[in-house]
Amino acid sequence: MTEESSLNTPPVESHEPKSVLRPAPTLAMVIPCYNEEPVLEQTAHVLAEKLSDLIRTEEIDNRSFILFVDDGSQDNTWRIAEKLHTSKPELFHAIKFSHNRGHQNAVYAGLMTSLSNGCDAAISMDADLQDDPNAIDKMVASYRKGDEIVYGVRNNRDTDTIFKRMTAESFYKLMTWMGADTIPDHADFRLMSKMAIQALSEYSEANLFLRGIVPSLGFKSDRVYYKRGVRAAGESKYPLSKMISFALEGITSFSVKPLHLITTTGFLSVVIGIVMLIYTIVSVCTGNAIAGWGSLMFSLWIIGGLILVSLGIVGEYIGRIYIETKHRPRYIIETEI
Ligand code: UDP
Ligand code: MG
What we know:
With about 325 residues, this protein is of the alpha/beta class. It is built from 11 helices and 8 strands. The chain has 2 domains: about 25-240, Spore Coat Polysaccharide Biosynthesis Protein SpsA, Chain A (Alpha-Beta Complex), CATH 3.90.550.10; about 255-330. It has an 8-stranded mixed sheet, with helices on both faces. Strand 1, helix 2 and strand 2 form a beta-alpha-beta unit. The chain is elongated. It starts with a helix and ends with a strand. Magnesium ion binds near residues 128 and 231.
């Protein structure tokens, strides 16, 4: 408002300047799929609807697409992806790994492929519709307001077993204690802008733990809360063994605290050993040597166990260093359509 006009017109209520939104992004939906034949078509349908809604309301660009990453499935997942691509080549894209490389690598590959296909932002989401597609709207809105990363955070765990709930909770606590910056109750349902994905591409480590790496990228971020549902079809691809190795991956790829623990425990063992030695000498001198036998055997086992556990932890790290020094390709893309 110019000075002149302000003199001639009656004062009007001042409005906050409207914050400038970023232009509607070309959005990629990155969907890792491992043997998702029972659910894939349903997921494709739900996501296609969601994208066309967002295109209609001009929240995203009409070049937005869905990218399936087939993580070496043995079932018909790839055939379904091909069929979807043939029906709508602009909307459905897909890449196929030559063998199973795990969820984290599949998400990473999808993000990198989206980047090379010219997207402005990408959302990674499970193939089983457990992540609420309606949260996508809020994620896009946060992006347009200027956030580079938007984390999907579940606000319920009632679809989980008590066991999964307890282990997940302890895991997040442990990770925080270990010094890794994770977002509690956030899995891999998140939006990343082009800039954030570019930053992620600088990470060349083979032990990929995105829930730790992404928060460590920094950038302006936001959280979107959603209710996590049950799997729409098929069964979980994360049995207990995979969950344990995933947790180990998280800890050992982010923290050297276990190594410090070994040192502390080692010192403690030495102190206990010295006390045992003094006790033994005293027992021998007083002629009661047999009395110490039990405690000695006991401590022998304890120390032996401690050494083994410590060696195990060190071994975890050495194993990872070993893999890291190989600089193997993270994945090999067989086909791209
Ligand atoms: N997934 C994958 N590779 C694997 C295991 C899982 O790409 O080796 C995908 C899977 O298809 C799904 C997502 O990762 O889209 C999450 O897996 P799932 O739903 O089985 O895990 P849960 O929700 O039971 O923890
Ligand atoms: Mg799931």
